[in-house]
Backbone:
């Protein structure tokens, strides 16, 4: 068998893997009922709560700064869990690496604090 003949099963697998979802979507579009959706379908909530006002609201950018800082420090704790589990088994170099990691994150937090990223400028969200 040549090299190109070795890839025939892989090519068949790729073609079938790509065609299966396409055929499934096509057949389901043929079999579905053609009806106009109810007007309630396009409401914000379909659970019989009548919305008041617009569903669009503008949030202050500071919310995103807090969310970004939360994600950074949340991921930091995820990285620290494996280290805490094997704390007694690892050597001094791994412990020094973790201490450097924590100091870099602390430096980032102090930098964000000094730049005013943790203070509200407009007094909260601006609702429309």
Residues:
């Amino acid at each position: 068998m040549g090299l190109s003949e070795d890839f025939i099963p892989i090519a068949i697998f790729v073609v079938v893997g790509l065609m299966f979802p396409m055929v499934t979507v096509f057949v389901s579009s043929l079999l579905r009922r053609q009806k106009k959706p109810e007007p309630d379908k396009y409401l914000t909530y379909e659970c019989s709560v009548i919305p008041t006002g617009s569903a669009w609201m503008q949030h202050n950018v500071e919310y995103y700064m807090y969310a970004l800082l939360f994600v950074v420090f949340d991921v930091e704790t995820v990285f620290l869990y494996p280290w805490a589990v094997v704390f007694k088994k690892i050597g001094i170099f791994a412990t020094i690496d973790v201490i450097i990691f924590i100091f870099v994150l602390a430096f980032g937090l102090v930098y964000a604090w000094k730049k005013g990223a943790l203070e509200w400028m407009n007094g909260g969200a601006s609702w429309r």
Remarks:
- The radius of gyration is 27 Å.
